[in-house]
Amino acid sequence: MPKPAPKSPRPAYRCAECGWETGKWVGRCGECQAWGSVAEAAAPTLRTAAAPVTTKAVPIGEVSVSESAFRTSGVPELDRVLGGGLVPGAAILLAGEPGVGKSTLLLEVAAQTARTRHRTLYVTGEESASQVRLRADRTGGVHDELYLAAETDLGAVLTHIEEVRPTLLVVDSVQTIGASGIEGVPGGVTQVKEVAAALIRVAKTRNITTVMVGHVTKDGSIAGPRVLEHLVDVVLHFEGDRNSRFRMVRAMKNRFGPIDEVGCFDLSSDGINAVTDPTGLFVENHHAQVPGTCVAVTMEGRRPLLAEVQALVTVSALERPRRTTSGLDGSRMAMVMAVLQQHCGIRFHNQDVFASTVGGAKLSEPAVDLAMAVALASASQGTVPPRGVVAMGEIGLAGELRRVRDLPQRLAEAARLGFQVAVVPAQPGSRSPAWAAQRQESRMVDDMRVIEVPDVDTALRLLKLTDGRQRPLRDVSDG
């Protein structure tokens, strides 16, 4: 009896994003939910044999670090985020929304690098060379050591690199460059991987600092395959509001420095300028004390920033009162309102509540809870908080105040700007809770009085925003 013919193996399909495998083609990956990333996997090949090495392995102590020393980019705020400056051979990915100022920032970096007699090549795939020249004339970025090329083909870009031999390479953007002989259109998964891999390979072999601009999706994540972020050494996000000139560069990945640093910039028609002290942008100078305001100290990376929280509470004519926030977390404000109503006796059930920040600042840190509570209580009661007070602390559901990180840095920044009093959470273990409930512990920090309070009710009574006679909601039904 003849043996049945062996069945041919079923073709396997693999996701280019996460490596998930399936027996049939699907349009969406079942693991990472990426669209269009599943393709037929190549047949397994033989084991790779040993091959000659490019460089001999040496003890790590004998490896020279002089070739990888930091070099300033000419933009101090960007150097702060990068951990000291540009590293030869580093691959940097800068992503951000359209119109936020990525090209303007990188043109300024290229011009500053050219002024230090380091040859720079700026490759643009989104604009013509004349358009980039117009921007350079406006921002003062024309220099003999700055070379400009408008190319969309990877082979042509590599030829420009061979001819110019730059120290800094800027590619704007990686999604517009296409590689001939590779399937897909420019910006696709396969094309972006090939283009990025080729540019990074050249950067490592020739010690060229390479900065690539990346597009973002509608949810703010970097467009293209996730492997792109793994290939590069540094991932930067350029953030900003269209209604404000203030911009921030935030490090999401950095092999040469910290990832909790931010750089602040001011984008104008004359170019982009570094903002070394951005606190004044987020604090309003009132001619007279007004209710519903409080200053918070938030941390952007390692940098403390003072921002003013404003609240407006009015009687509502609607069956369901409105709750509107701008620059603040709406769910966080709802929680703070519930705590104020439950533990401080401040009613919001028939009032419209509006809360916002000054200058377009976006505050999502829990340390802003106490400043938000002070602003809401002040607006609801119509009382004015004392002048020169900052408040910081996370509020728990039981009304307690929890510690915040980097408290000494926050207090030092508030004292530098002239604030006289800071209300902060009580440090656990310093005194018993019963003692802290009756008396507030205070100390002096840089000529500023720091008052430690255990809960939000004590903080509001200390600032004379409540008189303590409001009965908590849980006691309303009693008697």
UniProtKB/TrEMBL annotation:
One of its GO terms (biological process) is recombinational repair. The keyword NAD does not apply. ATP binds at G96, E97, P98, G99, V100, G101, K102, S103. The middle region has homology to RecA with ATPase motifs including the RadA KNRFG motif, while the C-terminus is homologous to Lon protease. The gene is radA. It comes from Nocardioides lianchengensis. GO terms for cellular component: cytosol. Residues 67-216 form the RecA family profile domain. Residues 352-479 are annotated as: Lon-protease-like. SMART domains: AAA. Pfam families: AAA_25, ChlI, Zn_ribbon_LapB. This is DNA repair protein RadA.
